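Case study 2.
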Amino acid sequence: MSQFDKGKDGDLGTSAVGGEAKKHLPHEDLRGGEGPQINFRPTRYKAEDLAGLTWEIQIEPKEGVIRPCVLIDISTNGLCVLLEKPLTVEPEKSVHLKVLYDGNIAYDGVAKVVELRGNGEKTVCALALLDGLIDVTSILNVLTIKKDMEQANAQAKTLFAGWFVGNYEPLKAVVSEFKLFLEDAKASLDEFQRKNRWLVQAAESDKRLRKAFYEGLFAWPSRKFGEFATRAWETSREVTKQDFEQLKKFCWRHLH
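Prediction:
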């Protein structure tokens, strides 16, 4: 048995990768640099920390030979992957590495094989990047947006389910028209008050002005309001008890 056959505890260890329990050696157990070779290690993010992103990782040890991999962990200057098939490359050798998440290219260049460990069936491979760094911050931002959008969409679906109900088109049409009428009537009255502010104030103490104001108000807007209220009542008489709460919220959202 070679020095790469067993891990820290004589086994490859276990971790949930891609929804299945796969055996591998945790990256922190892989042999690191010694003496002057010791360098600062950037923060590493495990695959489970990045759940929600779709990863596609390929190692090309030689031209035309591609080995798909499963992500174990990743940092700005390297990553650790699990290979389903043995990699016929010695440590310290270079390979071509391509890393994509959700279809976005995170890295496409040369990487050095730092460590290889396996039991003949599965191989854990640690890689150091040689052609630049991986923008981990961008990856985390994409993940944050996806998670927040999932939450926002779930909330929108809940709100939608609270007021939406099929059929009742005549009632919905009346309510929608009623809403537009109220918006236009309010805009007209606001404009009247803006132009005749002093008359509106004077009408509070002058019965003649107040009478003229109310006669104008009842001449059309109030009458139309009554017509809409009557139509809404007539079209709502067929609403079932089961659909009442949703339609009540529909009307409230439009007319409140």
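The radius of gyration is 34 Å.
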